[in-house]
């Protein structure tokens, strides 16, 4: 497996693969990889002969008081993991490679509406940072397919919207969330949890799943379900940023007849922000 840091090295390998007519898949990450990322690499492999994994902790998507400095950088361990997962190439650029004019003068791509609520409301500028780096990665790698995790449900909708709206020649694929045995969604941020917080954390998915079951069983008092869930989480010591039942397709408010719903949540536990969701097809 190759590890490259510059656009020149990346271009050399991509050119060789393209000469062979290999399809190329991209799995964008910020590193500190876990089994969830490995499953995205495996999914990518089903769609392409070559799999590129980018590892870049993107400063543009972190707010001023967020965990950019603290975010774990573990390239050596990530490289061992990706070798085992049979990725072909890691692209680990520096900030100047990704933002040649500097962060202040970086071109932004803003997706409207779908970015307004939820993580977009709590993390101003976050999705512009995500779309900005993802479109740069798409331009550099020119992948046939790109794979994103369902855990970041709003993010994958935003990237789908951007790609369709700008006619980007890449298919977006979403990989299922991988969970610990107790249901907690795998996340690089889980390691911020203390032992006590870690043992509480699975409640988030329990509550999401319970709402999923209630919806499947015909409950349609969305606001009541949200309020009950928020109380359960707050009683257990979670700070709730949002807990919401929405249309899976576009995060708009659903009506009673909507047959594809997503239940989305973001909570604070200790200093860690955890997000998760469940999609319900009725
Ligand atoms: O989901 C992530 O890890 C990041 O938001 C992404 C898509 C790699 C962009 O930096």
Structural features, described:
The radius of gyration is 19 Å and the shape is globular. It has two domains: 2-175, 3-Layer(aba) Sandwich (Rossmann fold), CATH 3.40.50.620; 188-281, Pantoate-beta-alanine ligase, C-terminal domain (Pantoate--beta-alanine Ligase, Chain: A,domain 2). The model has no long low-confidence stretch (mean pLDDT 98). Helices cover 38% and strands 20% of the residues. It has ten helices and nine strands. With 282 residues, the protein is α/β, with parallel strands linked by helices. Helix 6 crosses helix 7 (153-165) and helix 9 (203-216) runs antiparallel to helix 10. The N and C termini lie far apart (43 Å). The longest helix has 16 residues, at 126-141. The chain has helices spanning 7-19, 35-47, 75-84, 95-98, 119-122, 126-141, 153-165, 195-200, 203-216, 222-235, and strands at residues 2-4, 24-29, 50-55, 89-91, 145-149, 171-175, 239-247, 260-269, 272-281. A six-stranded parallel beta sheet has the order 1-4-3-2-5-6, sandwiched between helices. Strand 2 (24-29), helix 2 (35-47) and strand 3 (50-55) form a beta-alpha-beta unit.
Mass-distribution shape: globular
Helical segment tally?
Answer: 10
Low-confidence runs of at least 5 consecutive residues: none
Strand content: 15-25%
The separation of the N and C termini measures 43 Å
- Total domains, how many? 2
> Order of helices and strands, N to C?
EHEHEHEHHHEHEHHHEEE
Which structural class should the secondary elements be placed in?
Answer: alpha/beta
Hetero ligands: pantoate
User: Considering DSSP H and I runs of 4 or more, what fraction of the residues is helical?
Assistant: 25-40%
CATH fold descriptor of the largest domain? Rossmann fold
Total beta strands: 9
Lateral strand order in the biggest sheet: 1-4-3-2-5-6
What is the CATH superfamily classification of the largest domain?
Answer: HUPs
CATH class of the largest domain: Alpha Beta
CATH architecture field of the largest domain: 3-Layer(aba) Sandwich
Question: What summary fits the major beta sheet?
Answer: 6 strands, parallel
Radius of gyration, whole Å: 19 Å
Overall mean pLDDT stands at 98
